[in-house]
Amino acid sequence: MTIIHKHIDDIFEYDGSQINPSWAFNEFGIYGSSIITWVGPVNITPGNLKDFADVGLEIKSNYMINFICEFFDCQPANMRIAYLRQRLIVMIFREVLFEKGIVSKREGDDIFVENRKLSISIASASLSSMKIHFALNLEDKGTPDDVETIGLFDIKDKNGNQIFNKDNLTELVNDVAGRYIDELETIEKDISKTNLL
Predict the structure, then answer these.
(1) d(CA 188, CA 197)
(2) pLDDT tens-digit profile of 9-42?
(3) CB 60 within 8 A of CB 29
(4) Are 91 and 106 in contact (CB under 8 A)?
(5) 10 Cβ partners below 8 Å, 6+ apart?
(6) CA-based nearest residue to 15, from 191, 160, 135, 187
(7) Within 10 Å of residue 181's Cβ, how many Cβ atoms?
(8) Which of 70, 77, 97, 188 could cysteine-pair with 102, CB 3.0–4.6 Å?
(9) How far, in Å, CA of 146 to CA of 132, rounded?
(10) Which CATH class is domain 4-190?
(11) What angle (nearest 5°) sits at the alpha carbon of residue 137, between those of residues 135 and 142?
């Protein structure tokens, strides 16, 4: 499986409509499986909610890094595989945090640092593809009042220095996307070289 990663420099809002099938093709002309990343606010409108548990809740933030992943390799699309791939990108990001000396906790598909929520995520499947939205707060601003949140730019090392900032954000995004693509492509290679009796 070939997966294209494209980082968009433009800032725009994630409102939930981007989880719809073939968004990357319709917006950017990208065929096939892809990961689109960009920085922007999140404000999911009620009509675009995919998780029944989120009905009636506010899902918003002023400043997040967004990942939209879409996969066409499984036909028909498989919701279970979509959720497994969602958990994989969450765990890869936790691996990156660990390498930076940041202690985090995972509850399902959510990442917490200092017992404050860092990420949001949803997986979905349509007739044609599997999709994942994974996003991380960059700052603790504009998030729901009833949720304790933290942003990547709020996290400090033991000396009080900022670990992530605007200068290294693209490097972080490329690292996470690259590791994720490598994991998925390695799985495909392992399947192809396994001798089935």
Answers:
(1) 18
(2) 999 999 999 999 999 999 999 999 999 999 999 9
(3) no
(4) yes
(5) 38
(6) 135
(7) 18
(8) 97
(9) 25
(10) alpha beta
(11) 115
SS3 of the chain: the string is CCCEEEEECCCCCECCHHHCCCHHHHHHCCCCCEEEEEEEEEECCHHHCCCHHHCCCCCEEEEEEEEEEEECCCCCCCHHHHHHHHHHHHHHHHHHHHHCCCCCEEECCEEEECCEECEEEEEEECCCCEEEEEEEECCCCCCCCCCCECCHHHCECCCCCECCCCCCHHHHHHHHHHHHHHHHHHHHHHHHCCCCC
Distance CA 47, CA 33 (A): 25
Q: Which residues of 149-159 are buried (b: 16+ CB within 10 A; e: fewer)?
A: bbbbbbbeeee
Q: 103-136, pLDDT tens digit by residue? A: 999 999 999 999 999 999 999 999 999 999 999 9
What are the φ and ψ backbone dihedral angles of 145, each rounded to 5 degrees? -65, -25
